[in-house]
Predict the structure.
Amino acid sequence: MSTKTMDAIEVMKARSTVRKYDPDANIPEAELSELLEIATQAPSAWNLQHWRFLVITSKEMKEKLLPIAYNQEQVVEAAATVAVLGDLQANETARIVYKDARKDIYDLMIRQVDGAYQNERFARDEAFLNAGFAAMQLMLAAKAKGYDTCPIGGFDREKFVEEFRVPDRYAPVMLITIGKAAAPARPTTRLPLDQVVVKESF
């Protein structure tokens, strides 16, 4: 196994959920942009790249987020909180993704994608599924760069949309805090493989 692969595996093993952050630690803007760029390399259905990132770093906006996140102090103490949004109209992106394709391929893909997106449940499921890929990639990239993270699903999505003026096109999937740990992550219990893996069929 190559050293590069081992490095990736070690990052995956080392990543854990951190809830206490050093409030004086910052992430340089260029480095945060690099992490987000890496996150955008995640896979997505039809390459529609369903994710959008709303980045919150200012003290003022963190304080607005705090009650929306049910007063979880990590959103204030972390250097940044990234709201991962899912694109409910990701089919519109197909026109950009396939613009250089041959006309017959372009027409086929647009017809296929638009057809699937007539189903609102499908559109929402795809938004959350594919945005989740980018979220995980962001957390792994952060760990590789020496930062800690915590995915947060517990927040008031309606108030978040209202306070941060999120367009109807996007659905809040999760918040991810990023920063330097002020206390170690709490140990977690993982289920053994024989409880989570089924071979061939139930």
